[in-house]
Automatic annotation (TrEMBL):
Key words, A-Z: Signal
UniProt keyword annotation of Signal present: yes
Organism from which the protein derives: Arthrobacter mobilis
Superkingdom field: Bacteria
Signal peptide per UniProt: 1-23
Protein name, per record: Uncharacterized protein
Length: 153
C-alpha cells in the first residue's frame, strides 16, 4: 500500500514523533485514493476508497512501525471491483549505508514501476538517503503477490 501510508509515516516521523512508542488509539482513515494509486495501472484510472485505521509507532532510534488495523480498500475500474483488507504493517529502519529499509508483513497494497499489487506475506524495499528507490519488492518472493491492475482490466 503503501506508498501513501509510507508517505504518511515519513511525514509523521519528520514532524517529531520519534519519541518512544505510545499506546494511543489508531487514527480512523476514510479517504479517496491518492493520485499515485489512481494512476498506477497503465491505460486506465482507478477509483475507490480506503477505510479503517492507521497508526505510526515511532522509536527513539529513529525507526518506526506503521500499522493499519481494520483497513480495507475498494478499487474500481473498467466495470470491475477489487476489495481487500490491507491490515499489514511496515517496519522502517536505516541500514549501515544510511538507506531506509521498509519491511512489510501481512496484507499491503503497493505500487511498483509496473503496476499496483496486493502483497500477502513478507516483502521489503529500500530507498537511498536521497529518496531514490534502490531495491523494489520482489514479485516472486515468499508469500503471495496479486496483480491488481490485471484484476481490474
Amino acid at each position: 500500500m503503501k506508498k501513501w501510508l509510507i508517505s504518511t509515516a515519513l511525514a509523521s516521523s519528520i514532524a517529531g514523533l520519534a519519541g518512544p512508542a505510545v499506546a494511543a488509539a489508531p487514527t480512523p482513515v476514510d479517504s479517496d485514493l491518492p493520485k499515485f494509486i489512481q494512476n498506477a495501472c497503465k491505460g486506465f484510472k482507478i477509483e475507490g476508497e480506503i477505510t479503517g485505521e492507521e497508526k505510526v509507532l515511532a522509536f527513539p532510534d529513529g525507526g518506526f512501525i506503521v500499522i493499519a488495523p481494520n483497513q480495507e480498500v475498494t478499487l474500481t475500474a473498467n466495470g470491475n471491483t477489487f476489495t481487500s483488507v490491507i491490515t499489514g504493517s511496515f517496519h522502517v529502519s536505516t541500514d549501515a549505508e544510511g538507506n531506509t529499509v521498509f519491511t512489510g508483513t501481512g496484507r499491503n497494497l503497493l505500487t511498483r514501476s509496473n503496476g499496483l499489487f496486493l502483497t500477502i506475506g513478507n516483502i521489503s524495499f529500500t530507498f537511498d538517503e536521497k529518496g531514490k528507490l534502490v531495491e523494489e519488492f520482489a514479485l516472486d518472493g515468499p508469500g503471495q503477490v496479486i496483480d491488481v491492475c490485471a484484476a481490474l482490466s
